[in-house]
Every structure is written in C-alpha cells, then in structure tokens.
Predict the structure.
Amino acid sequence: MSKPRVLVTRRIPEAGLKAVQDCADVEVWEGEGPIPHDVLLQKIASVEGLYCLLTDVVDEALLAQAPRLRVVSTMAVGYDHIDVHACTRRKIPVGNTPGVLTETTADCAFALLMAAARRISEAAEFVKAGCWGAWDPTLLVGHDVHGATLGIIGFGRIGQAVARRATGFGMRVLVNHSRPIADDILSQSHVEQVSFDQVVAESDFLSVHVPLTPETQHLIDRQVFNRMKPTAILINTARGKVVDSEALLDALRDRTIAYAALDVTDPEPLSAQDPLVMLPNCLIVPHIASASVATRTKMAVMAAENLRAGLAGQPLPHCVNPEVFEK
Ligand code: NAP
Ligand code: GLV
C-alpha cells in the first residue's frame, strides 16, 4: 500500500524527519528560509499531511487548496499562525508541541532578564570595541535581579517555569493570569496573583507569557507603558504582536520604560536598520527561546508523532482541536 504524502516545510532535526519518513512519502522544502506562500499553495494540493513551522500561514485560502489534507502538525507550541477554526470546520486535527520546550524557553526568558539587568550585551560590545580601561566604580552599572519584583503575565507552563527561576533568585513574583489560581499553587510557587494594573505598576521586570490571540494582541500598549515604572524592563518571549511595537519604540526612546529584551518582535525578522534594533536600550535575539539541541529534537519528534497519528486517523497525542475526533 502506498504511503500518504506529507510536506515538511523546512529542514528539521534528523530524528523528527526520520519519524515522518517512517510513516509517509515525504517532500521537504530545502530552500533557504520559509517556503514561499505561493509554493506552499501549490504543493498543499497533493498532500495528506502538513508538517509546518510557525513561519507558515495556514489559513482558509490554503485549506481551500488542500482537498486531501488530513492533519496539520506544527513544530511549535504557539499555533497563532494556523486558523484552527477553519481546520476544525474541515475536521482536520491540528497538533502542536507543548511542554517539551517549557524549561528551555524559560531559561531564555531568564537569560534575557539577567542580560538586560546587568547590561551584558553592552558590556561585551564595550570590551570588543577596545574601550576597557581601568576598573571604574561607575562603569556599566545595572540593576539587581535579587530582591527585585518580577511581573509575569500568563501563568501557564512557561510563566510558571519562569517564576520557579525567579524565586530561586530571591525575587518577589507577581502574576497576572486569565483565571483565579488555586491557593495551594500560589503558596507552593511563592507567587502572588494580582490584577493586570498592579502587575504593570509594581514590576521592575515584566515578562509576557500569553499566547497570541485576538484578546492578547497589543496587550502591552501605550497606556501600559505609561503605567510602568520608568526603571522597568520588559521581557517578551511570547509573540511579537502581544506588544504594540510602535508604542514600545516610543516608550524606549522617551525612557518611559528603561529597557526591553525581546526574543520575538513584530514583524519578524527585523532588519539591522530597524529603529528598535538600533536603540541602545533594547536587546533583541532572533526567536531562539526554544533553541537548544535537545529541545528542538524533542519538538521535531513530537510534531512527527502528531502527524503520524493524524495520518492514521487516530487522536493526536497533542491536539489543539480535539473536538474533530468527536463522533
Ligand atoms: P500555556 O501553558 O497555554 O500558557 C499561557 C497561559 O496564558 C494560559 O494559562 C492562559 O490561560 C494564559 N492567558 C491567556 N490569555 C491571558 C491574558 N489575557 N492574561 C493573562 N493570562 C492569559 O502556554 P505556554 O506553553 O506557556 O506558551 C505560551 C506562549 O509562549 C505560546 O503560546 C507561544 O506563543 C510562546 N512561546 C514562544 C517561544 C519562543 O520561542 N519565543 C517558545 C515557546 C512558547 P487560559 O488557559 O485560561 O487561556
Ligand atoms: C515558539 O515560538 C513556539 O511557539 O514553539
């Protein structure tokens, strides 16, 4: 019996590719960068499975060209690049990769926090530029992490993992969450649940961990920046669009807030000439929060397992629209 056809939209870690090849006849987009949308539109017509990345837009228009499609599997936990409702209407299950990247992403959020607080990137540039003279009591002084207040917006998997790191550093941790958090979880985590206004006003570091949805788009806007401390540092490892980029640029230029450390931006990628990139008080890395060898391998394999289940007509191990399997 012939194997189902699958399109993999980028080169992925070997273990993930092997797992897909075991169950499907696979075409991998080998070009540099994301598969162009017109190529994706053309190739989707003949495949039963789509193994995609967060750079691929899976919308109504794409699905309309995909009469054979039985499963969409993204190698990411965030699935804002997929029109899940449109997939559900067509009974196409959508898989993602929750959990396996939680700790690695939290490590990166905390690395950004530490680098911003202690001006690590600036200090490294200073040495490379040959500026290092005698020890100076006023040179590159930053802010303490220990004893500071960290605000976390979105107390899900990654938000909780960041809180664990912060309590280890002796920080006071305030969290704002979509729902009330049970008292035992609050006390075990050593965090306080507070209103959005309070987390914004009291945080020395504000770290965002919500998914991108219509409700969270531009959650951090001009009004929010105006209510933050002028010494505050914003950390974003969630999605670029959760922050209003124009308002962020103004807030950093006017020193309404002190600093931003970003793994995600709107748009992505940013050019080296982007005004945000050129600011001295903004540290930007290129969406690498889950980028450890071990985690990317786990994500690739997990996405392959979701794909395999979908092709077999079985419930996906990690499905964002499990209702498609209801009779
Ligand atoms: P998660 O476990 O679903 O956590 C997100 C939490 O945010 C959920 O508990 C959700 O609550 C809560 N939330 C939603 N809207 C909110 C709001 N307006 N205010 C406060 N809380 C809100 O997801 P996760 O695994 O932690 O991942 C979070 C996001 O991080 C992903 O969606 C992805 O976009 C991003 N991410 C980025 C990277 C990277 O490489 N930079 C890596 C991994 C993840 P409800 O369940 O009640 O909605
Ligand atoms: C990365 O951004 C992810 O959502 O996995």
User: Anything to note?
Assistant: The mean pLDDT is 98. The CA atoms of residues 240 and 264 lie 5 Å apart. The pocket of glyoxylic acid (ligand 2) is lined by residues 54, 76-78, 101, 290 (CB under 6 Å). The radius of gyration is 22 Å.
